[in-house]
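Ticket #4471: structure output looks truncated?

Reporter: J.K.
Steps to reproduce: submitted the chain below (252 residues) through the standard prediction queue, then opened the result file.
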Amino acid sequence: MLVIPAIDLKDGQCVRLKQGRMEDSTVFSDDPVSMAGIWQAKGARRLHIVDLNGAFAGTPVNAEIITKIAATYPDLPIQIGGGIRSMENVEFYINAGVSHVIIGTQAVKKPEFVKDACEAYPGKVIVGIDAIEGMVATEGWADVSDVSAVTLAEKFADYGVAAIVYTDINCDGMMRGVNLEATRELADHSPIPIIASGGVSKLADIAAIREASEAATGGGIMGVITGRAIYEGSLDLTLAQQLCDEEINQPD
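Returned output as attached by the reporter:
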């Protein structure tokens, strides 16, 4: 299981929001490119980048910074989300060296776009499912739909989606632990591997997600995204990844 550091970009800075509120942000660095290097040095095997401005604008806004990160660290896989709503956006990021694009809002509004992107770029498309009380939110979490996270995940089972990033919005940035029940339910129902996001605050959260992945009956949990915890120091990225790499002792 991968422990994936998050770099959320707002106005060119590396920030963290609480529950997706743009007005409730904490700036952790004004040099996102260097921040990416720090996480790589600490053992990150993938980076999660979100263009927050892009998510609200509906089109990439911080693309120049993202392109620079990809060029500076060509051996560090990057998954990028926020404002990816056209095939031109997908093509731009793939050509820029990003390993995976995350489609969120359009996955709800135009599912066929996900299918087209998967056909054009096999293995490089991730669906982002952000939910409040189990219901999918779009437009930078500003709008809550009448579609459940499980229903949406099941819709993409045959599309060729590489993974699903599942974020519980009520937990995001709050440092109160992950919504294990909702994450496990999704991992049970979806044949697509899940990347858990939202609320990770300590090593025990990583251990709990790892256990949930082992018990899942569907595609399992392939990774967990962490942001505020590694920036504020309550979680050590290196130790977290080491924990995930340890073999789980199976009973005889």
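Triage note (M.O.): checked the attachment and the full token line is present. DSSP finds eleven helices and twelve strands in the chain.
Status: closed, working as intended.
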